[in-house]
Model the fold of this input.
Amino acid sequence: MQDKDKLLEQFKNLIVNFSPKDKEIILNAVKFAEKCHKGQLRASGEEYIIHPISVAVNLLNMRADVEMIIAGLLHDVVEDSPVTYEDVAKIYGKNVANLVDGVTKISKLKASNKTEQNAETIRKMLFAMIKDIRVIIIKFADKLHNMQTLEYLPKEKIKRIANETLDIYAPLAGRIGMGIIKNDLENLALKSLKPDIYNIIDDYIVKNEMNIETTLDEITKVIKCKLGKKEIPFAIKSRPKHYYSIYKKMQKYDKKIDEIFDLFGIRIITDTIDNCYYIFGIVHSIWMPIPGRFKDYISSPKHNGYRSLHTTVLVEKRKAVEIQIRTEDMDEVNEYGVAAHWFYKKDSAPNVEDFDWLKNLMEFNKENLSWEDYYNAIRDDILKEEIYIFTPKGDIVELPKGSTPLDFAFKIHTDIGYRCKGAKANGAIVSLNTELNNGDIVDILTGNKPNVKPSWLAYVKTNHAKRKIKYSLSQINQESQFTKKKDAKEELKEDIKDKNIANERKFQIKKVKSPKITVEIDGERNLLFNFAKCCNPSPKDDIIGFVSRGRGIIIHKADCKSLKNIKDFENRKIEVNWTE
Ligand code: MN
Done:
């Protein structure tokens, strides 16, 4: 339970640097909200006003402006009291009223059930967000406080709200580059859905914090020494990886917490981009980098604006540590996001053209989808972790993780999807249901006529492609019913043709089915590795990796005799696993 007076004090401290005029309006909004919610209680039994003030505190921590703070204080008044949009507009202006309206739920009367009500509320909010990005920031502040106080609700409701947070709000925060909010929301959802696992992770992290401090001191000392007289300012800090990502790793690779090696990340902050690369060079010259783990998000930033250098190196006792190197400015943007920039622009609408996913969102908003299709499309097509696929000409196409060549074909153009006959990935023929990898170059082979088959529905991942295929199949059905009546002979011919096609397909699937054996290192798959010629391991053998200089990771049988002769093997060995 929160103490209202303490909370108010905290709130007032946070607005201390606002102008006297702004302060007056804000405090007036507190009183207004208090009056509106008078007599109402939260599920926790607290006075309702605790909630909007907490939301405003969250907003202040996200560097929000005055209009957002007022909207945060009033965000529930239209829903929960007789106050209307017009009332808010009259007192606090149209902008504030629009912000409040964007986060107000669709009324129960307009929806036939609870799920529809939620989906429609999300649709409305995303509409409003495209016009004014601040809507979604207020919703995040609201969600954060609700997630912190979830325990007072019935179990079923907790589950629904936590899942919705994982489906929609956390990925959305990631998309606009608000890394801190994404992590907080995911951690809170984990705490609500799997309290046992959350506690196991938490205990382990607390116990191991001391160890990482020692590693940190060691690293700082070594870098300082190497820099010598060169005056490069740098600060170094560590923080635990966020619990939700640790949980996902444990789940994906069926591992216990003490088997996950990078629980802590180390961050080095310096002053200029040149010095980022300089320090990076030093780090690599002292410790052995793990091949394939180096990422340069400074020269090619992530789509949400994230910039940093990432590398994983083996420090003392072959412990792998991820190190991120960045400037102070980058650090700020990485945590509070591109969104932070939008706040300060006069026109607070993001430039839709700059963001593929916003363009897609606009398309979905235009299409007249049922609430169920809409929710699924947002969750699976827009907010899922994305991969980038290249056309043969080098254009980049963004798709949700798990997409296949058919998804790619439909994303390029509906007609290319319909006429798709086959596909090549990186020059080799692949089946249409192959899962594509980030960075693949995909070439779609097309025929002159549409080639849509019912089996395609199982091949695609995106709802977009699914809808197009369903539509085409329904057209074909209508046509074929017509021709059936017309000509029975033709039908027979069609039948034979169909069977041939089916055979052909079976053959194709067979051809590509032989599994591609590869190895993974702590869940990373696309790493450079070679099999050792001395022992030539095959998938039945126990294996171990050796981090070579310049030739990637060399995979040996765990009991290979030549390991004894490799100088420095103990310091440079690394755990590897087979994967299909
Ligand atoms: Mn609320």
In short: The two ends are 50 Å apart (CA to CA).
